[in-house]
Amino acid sequence: MIDQTIQVVINAPHKDVYNYISDLRNDREWRTEVILTSSQADLEIGNIAIESSFLSRKIPQYIRRLECIAFQQNDMILYQTLDGDPHYLKSTRSVQICEGDSTRFIYRLEFDQSIVKHALGFSLPKLNIDVVTRRSMRNYMNNLKTILETNV
To answer: Highest taxon of the source (predicted)?
Structure first.
């Protein structure tokens, strides 16, 4: 199991950050592999989001269904793959008020490394997956910080 957590302080109001990161339809703006995310309803427990993402040339459009299994308004949201999905993933997003008008965003990603074998056709050592995941998550945070500090 891969389990990575990364955080960033964003110079934007807490509510703006939470509203942006809790709407998975915004993910394609800051997560480079996401093609499109749709949602059946507003944010609520049991809501199903369907994410289409680019995994590799072998799997250029991977469809994943995610269920909101927990959330606390203006604080945290947790999505997880549905039971029976062959490639488990859980995404936890939380925000904390910082001094001034800044917000700390904490992003935790847990997933089964079988998705890498599915995408590439071969396995990679866990250490390599950890390094690539951490680098990707840093890039996500930089993208998100830029978007929220300049556009929202």
So the answer is: Bacteria
The boundaries of the domain holding residue 146 are 2-150
Report the candidate in 46, 58, 33 with the shortest Cα–Cα distance to residue 111.
Answer: 33
How far apart, in Å, are the Cα atoms of 97 and each of 8, 104, 109, 113, 148? 12, 6, 21, 33, 15
Instruction: Specify the number of domains making up the chain.
Output: 1
Give residue for tokens 């250490």: 127
The pTM assigned to this predicted structure is 0.92
CATH code for position 29: 3.30.530.20
Between strands 62-72 and 48-53, the pairing is antiparallel
Q: pLDDT confidence of 152, banded at 50, 70, 90?
A: low
Would you say how long the chain is, in residues?
152
pLDDT > 70 in the chain, percent? 99
Phi-psi category of 134—alpha, beta or left, where left has phi over 0 and alpha has psi -120 to 50?
alpha
β-strand 2-10 against 103-111: which pairing, if any?
A: antiparallel
How far is C-alpha 146 from the chain's CA centre?
16
